[in-house]
Automatic annotation (TrEMBL):
Record's keyword terms, sorted: DNA-binding, Transcription, Transcription regulation
Entries under CDD domains matching the protein: HTH_ARSR (cd00090)
Superkingdom, natural source: Bacteria
Cited PROSITE patterns: HTH_ARSR_2
NCBIfam families reported for this sequence: HTH_metalloreg
The protein's name in its UniProt record: ArsR family transcriptional regulator
Gene3D superfamilies attached to this UniProt entry: Winged helix-like DNA-binding domain superfamily/Winged helix DNA-binding domain
GO molecular function, one term: DNA binding
HTH arsR-type domain mapped to chain residues: 1-87
InterPro entries per record: ArsR-like_HTH, HTH_ArsR_DNA-bd_dom, HTH_MetalResp_TranReg, WH-like_DNA-bd_sf, WH_DNA-bd_sf
SUPFAM superfamilies the UniProt entry points to: Winged helix' DNA-binding domain
Length: 114
């Protein structure tokens, strides 16, 4: 899983995964979308492939890059307890905010008193 985190640490690689979420793509398409050179995109794709996040499907002279969902599912499972922690804290914040007086309702009353 550490390879996945290393690969996902780079924002360009996350953008590439976002592009591949919709459908498989050629390197040239990805380079065009990201406004980057093909060699530079190929380096990012190599890192993603080494991390197991993408696969390559050769078709004649072209190479289609596809997203692999399995490593992302592993990451999602690892993050699940942290998501629950966030949800609990947001629930506590919501409960606290509901007990606080509404400032917008209080302001006109204060203005009348002065």
């Amino acid at each position: 899983m550490s390879l996945s985190f290393d690969a996902l640490a780079d924002p360009t690689r996350r953008r590439i995964l976002g592009l591949l979420l919709g459908r498989p793509r050629l390197v040239g398409e990805i380079a065009h979308e990201l406004e980057m050179s093909q060699p530079r995109v190929s380096k990012h794709l190599r890192v993603l492939r080494d991390a197991g996040l993408v696969t390559v499907r050769p078709e004649a002279q072209r190479r289609w890059y596809e997203l692999r969902a399995e490593p992302l599912a592993d990451l999602d499972a690892w993050l699940a307890p942290y998501r629950r922690l966030w949800a609990e804290r947001l629930d506590l914040l919501e409960q606290r905010l509901e007990t606080m007086p509404d400032v917008l309702e209080e302001e006109p009353r204060q203005a009348k008193e002065q």
